[in-house]
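question for whoever is on the cluster today: can someone run the full assembly for these? two chains, 538 residues total. i dont have access anymore since they changed the login thing
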Amino acid sequence: MQHPFDTAIALTPITEHVFNGATTGPYANMIGPFGGATSAAILNAALQHPQAQGSPISLTVNFAGPLADGEFEIKAIPIRTNRSTQHWSFELQQDGQIAATATAVFALRRETWSAPEAMPPSDMPPAQSLTRAPTAGMPAWTQSYDMRFAPSELPSPFDGQMQAHANSRFWVRDEPTRPLDFASLASLCDCFFPRIFLRRRSFTPIGTVSLTCFFHADAALLAEQSDRHVLACARALNYRNGYFDQSAEIWSDSGQLLASSHQMVYYRE
Amino acid sequence: MQHPFDTAIALTPITEHVFNGATTGPYANMIGPFGGATSAAILNAALQHPQAQGSPISLTVNFAGPLADGEFEIKAIPIRTNRSTQHWSFELQQDGQIAATATAVFALRRETWSAPEAMPPSDMPPAQSLTRAPTAGMPAWTQSYDMRFAPSELPSPFDGQMQAHANSRFWVRDEPTRPLDFASLASLCDCFFPRIFLRRRSFTPIGTVSLTCFFHADAALLAEQSDRHVLACARALNYRNGYFDQSAEIWSDSGQLLASSHQMVYYRE
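^ ran it for u. tokens below:
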């Protein structure tokens, strides 16, 4: 049986550069699909394109309009292929309207001098010692992830008591388990609650307008991580007149940086 | 007389969506133009497009191939215009080949609840108390900026003695002075020395493959800042098999976040 995530990002080739996909129930958000599943489907169009060369280095998805539940079409064009890098351009359409644009860079990586600079938090209890956060009353996509917060760091109820910061960190993996790959890593880059909900502990309509993922992991590092929990950490820098940012890192359980991610998010008030 | 930065990003409309531009001497890099000037020229195609609505929220430029000194052509298409947001798609061509692709989100901002979350460093001496860093032997574009490092934080000579980190911070403004706007802010987002040069204190061939700028400032905040120095801070998270990242913030001299920026950079060895 196919894993629900593979169903969510499954694409059928229509022409050389155009693929058909469809939203699925397990990755539904409050309205329309979870953005992580959409950006993973877009990346998947390049990953399964016959002309793909190398593995993803960066992906930027701009969400141009609401996506409804149902079918969509992704056009994926390898705009320029060099000796070691490949540049992609994407459009996601639904009912003849562009709902998202995206670009990606792929590369053939070679072994070079490598070094970490940032380090994962050292005081996070291991995933095995924590329990899965409840998802009752939350959008369906949250049930497609097993998220484990340190006991004192569980998201608190929406009582409107402003917090001083919106930092959060938790272990997360696909539910049911699934070996990590570039598509699921792209989706994980968006698996955070909106920072403004945490900061203000209250709800306001929001929508990501631009999401960038940087892939620090190569295929070998993803294979090492397999289907175990990864550590996800996120924060915001600033909220100003309708837009805030979010930066996040996804760490392997051996402390390697797998991905970093940055987004700008609209908020109504 | 036109400011050299305005000359560097000047565009002549050719058709509805196509503009001609050219690299200039004051923004030359070691080979070809400084990437910040190129991304500012791309943004400028939207800023001066008759259909532009609102101000920039995000800009992502993917550098697909080397740009030579000389003329280039930028295609700027408003892919989708909503009530409050506008989505742009760009291609920069030279001699019939795509040298860069880009996307941007513009928005009409409204006044909402706003708050900082990150804060600028509190121990940076004011720009007026520091002297301009020397640029002898460096690419021409560095002379188009007035950069002021704290005395103990001047970039150190390339003696190959590895540093523990590649953090840096300095005051910077256009040289000669020029009131800050969205285009010059986009360019400032790329005015950092490559993190790997700082970390390893040695040279290796590098090239940015993807650069994202988030604009936290609106036009009013830029007008307040005018032509005074802004504070630029940058760091890296990780270097792995040919690619490292850089994240940066640009702060006003009153401590407001003007822009944040993220890039992935190729390095040869």
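summary bc i know u wont read the tokens: The longest helix of chain B spans residues 35-47. Chain B touches chain A through 63 residues (CB under 8 Å).
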